[in-house]
Amino acid sequence: MGGTALGSKYLYEEVDPKIAWSDPQNILYLGSGALGGARIAGTGCFSIVTKGALNNGAASTQANGFFGAYLKFSGFDGILIQGASPNWKYLYVHDGVAELRDAQHLVGQNTWEIEDTIKKELGYSESGMSVFSIGPAGENLVKFAGVFGDRGHSASHNGVGACWGAKKIKAVAVSRSAGKVEVADTQKVAAISKEISEDFKEHIVYQWGTSRGFPGTLKIGALPVKNYTTNLFPEWEKFDGPYVR
């Protein structure tokens, strides 16, 4: 069971469907996948599940980076936040411990600045900690605000950044810690991981990136253009992977 499935279970069981996304009883679930932290390609992302600000419905969004793996190394599969703080806080997770710290000094900072500030404050190197946070948009409850971390990775669907802002959660910082994710058969996992990695190298995304999906997406009318106001884009060829390269 991965982070999204477990988060959805908590959302269904803990949150009354009648409450608004900004209600303190709404939850924020941040969870790694079942294989998070294992030496398998593609398992490093984490999920955020909540009742989203944009449509006041169930929201699930994922981000890459080191957060999911570091969460496991710190001794946690996930984090469940319910309630709201009267003052700005950030959550510091390390070595089996999770503690709320004052974040008033982070208010107004953008997400890159927050990473720098927290790592310096706690004495971590660039790679020794994963920090995901909200900027001024999330602080001001902009309904399409996202959550950003590890120098540009984002979890942005359905206004989850505003949900962090409603709870006065400015950031979640997870240290690399010294824990490990143990597997029953290390050799078998390594062989499967290698097979997945080699197979992926034959995939069109590996060769050209996600931009190679333009032709197919355009053909079925699913290309979002001008903030989903149209699906027509005559200049699409200039954004296709082979053309860009």
TrEMBL record:
GO MF terms held by the record: electron transfer activity; iron-sulfur cluster binding; oxidoreductase activity, acting on the aldehyde or oxo group of donors, iron-sulfur protein as acceptor
Pfam families: AFOR_N
SMART domains: AFOR_N (SM00790)
PANTHER family: ALDEHYDE FERREDOXIN OXIDOREDUCTASE, TUNGSTEN-CONTAINING ALDEHYDE FERREDOXIN OXIDOREDUCTASE
InterPro entries: Ald_Fedxn_OxRdtase_N, Ald_Fedxn_OxRdtase_N_sf, Tungsten_al_ferr_oxy-like_C, W-dependent_AOR
Stated name of the protein: Aldehyde ferredoxin oxidoreductase N-terminal domain-containing protein
Limits of the Aldehyde ferredoxin oxidoreductase N-terminal domain: 1-180
Lineage: unclassified sequences, metagenomes, ecological metagenomes
Organism: marine sediment metagenome
